[in-house]
């Protein structure tokens, strides 16, 4: 028997899928090409884009999109900042750093997706680390370029622990979970979902995996969102708005029906483990996308005061010469209507 909840959700999905995508380009005009950099391999974190692509939503909006796998936010930001890519999805803090360190760079985040930063300390139950103070004297595995490592001193200050009182096992990102699973570290640093599913693949039981979030000590940072190159944003704003609008509908639909999003991802990348990637997407919806802020305002928009505070934190942690201004990081003029940014109930 269909419940009221399932009827409501099904109605929401139908509305999202049926919603028209209007671009003044018209059918007669050639489609605008959009080269987009993901911040990860083809996985659950980017399934929404493939759901929209499979359903023809980008095509109907006059766009021809190419979605390329990436090796992290740093790579996605560099691709977009260089102008080789028109758009991407990446951590807003890494993007702010790129703009600050590259004269003339004018990348902008135009649609926030992760309202709670996934930066955290990952550990195992056997390590006995239940609070930040427990890290004293412990060995932490980390990758030098990773944002979680580079902001650790800021986290330590907020958590009132001595950052010099920990030992380090510096490894590549691909070995980070292995050093924790193998006992060569008591904890590791990174994105929660990346570490969680990496540890599962290493044979660690879910109940044994624990996290200490940077957000829990007051580092209330935004995370990943859609970024646009200066050229795409300023020279083809109509196509850019169409792209953001379709992507907003895609995230809305993926949150309403994760299985459909993963099926679209599987059609594009047949070698993925659909069950694991669905778990990852569900994780992101629950832990990064759904907060009191996003439930109240929808996805996409930011709170300027929160962003300003987080940029001050990032500037200190990354050693930037000046604190970026919110308007130099986020451009709200590309936001779609509130209706297509609303999270499903």
TrEMBL record:
All copies of domain SsuA/THI5-like, residue ranges: 47-261
Secretion signal span: 1-30
UniProt GO molecular function: metal ion binding; transferase activity
Pfam families (alphabetical): NMT1 (PF09084)
Catalytic activity reported: N(6)-(pyridoxal phosphate)-L-lysyl-[4-amino-5-hydroxymethyl-2-methylpyrimidine phosphate synthase] + L-histidyl-[4-amino-5-hydroxymethyl-2-methylpyrimidine phosphate synthase] + 2 Fe(3+) + 4 H2O = L-lysyl-[4-amino-5-hydroxymethyl-2-methylpyrimidine phosphate synthase] + (2S)-2-amino-5-hydroxy-4-oxopentanoyl-[4-amino-5-hydroxymethyl-2-methylpyrimidine phosphate synthase] + 4-amino-2-methyl-5-(phosphooxymethyl)pyrimidine + 3-oxopropanoate + 2 Fe(2+) + 2 H(+)
Superkingdom of the organism of origin: Bacteria
UniProt keywords, alphabetically: Iron, Metal-binding, Pyridoxal phosphate, Signal, Thiamine biosynthesis, Transferase
BP GO annotations: thiamine biosynthetic process
Pathway, per record: Cofactor biosynthesis; thiamine diphosphate biosynthesis
PANTHER family: 4-AMINO-5-HYDROXYMETHYL-2-METHYLPYRIMIDINE PHOSPHATE SYNTHASE THI11-RELATED (PTHR31528)
Assembly information from the UniProt record: Homodimer.
Annotated function: Responsible for the formation of the pyrimidine heterocycle in the thiamine biosynthesis pathway. Catalyzes the formation of hydroxymethylpyrimidine phosphate (HMP-P) from histidine and pyridoxal phosphate (PLP). The protein uses PLP and the active site histidine to form HMP-P, generating an inactive enzyme. The enzyme can only undergo a single turnover, which suggests it is a suicide enzyme.
Family in the record: Belongs to the NMT1/THI5 family.
Name of protein: Thiamine pyrimidine synthase
Organism: Xaviernesmea oryzae
């Amino acid at each position: 028997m269909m419940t009221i909840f399932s009827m409501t959700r099904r109605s929401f999905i139908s509305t999202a899928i049926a919603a028209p995508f209007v671009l003044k380009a018209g059918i007669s005009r050639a489609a605008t090409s959009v080269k987009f950099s993901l911040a990860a391999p083809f996985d659950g974190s980017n399934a929404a884009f493939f759901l929209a692509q499979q359903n023809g939503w980008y095509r109907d909006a006059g766009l021809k999109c190419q979605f390329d796998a990436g090796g992290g936010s740093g790579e996605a930001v560099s691709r977009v900042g260089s102008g080789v890519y028109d758009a991407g999805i990446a951590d807003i803090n890494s993007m702010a750093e790129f703009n600050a360190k590259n004269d003339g760079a004018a990348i902008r985040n135009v649609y926030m997706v992760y309202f709670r930063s996934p930066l955290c300390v990952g550990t195992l139950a056997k390590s006995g680390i239940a609070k930040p103070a427990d890290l004293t004297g412990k060995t932490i595995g980390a990758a030098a370029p990773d944002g979680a490592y580079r902001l650790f001193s800021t986290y330590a200050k907020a958590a009132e622990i001595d950052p010099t009182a920990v030992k380090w096992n510096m490894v590549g990102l691909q070995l980070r979970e292995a050093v924790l699973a193998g006992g060569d570290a008591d904890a590791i640093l990174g994105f929660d979902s990346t570490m969680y599913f990496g540890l599962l693949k290493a044979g660690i039981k879910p109940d044994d995996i624990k996290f200490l979030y940077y957000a829990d000590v007051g580092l209330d940072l935004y995370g990943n969102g859609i970024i646009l190159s200066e050229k795409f944003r300023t020279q083809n704003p109509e196509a850019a708005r169409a792209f953001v609008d379709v992507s907003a509908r895609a995230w809305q639909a993926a949150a309403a029906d994760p299985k459909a999003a993963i099926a679209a991802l599987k059609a594009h990348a047949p070698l993925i483990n659909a069950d694991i990637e669905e778990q990852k997407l569900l994780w992101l919806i629950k832990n990064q996308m759904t907060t009191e802020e996003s439930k109240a305002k929808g996805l996409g928009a930011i709170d300027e005061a929160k962003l300003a505070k987080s940029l001050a934190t990032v500037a200190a942690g990354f050693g930037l010469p000046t604190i970026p201004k919110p308007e130099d990081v986020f451009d709200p003029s590309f936001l779609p209507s509130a209706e297509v940014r609303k999270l499903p109930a």
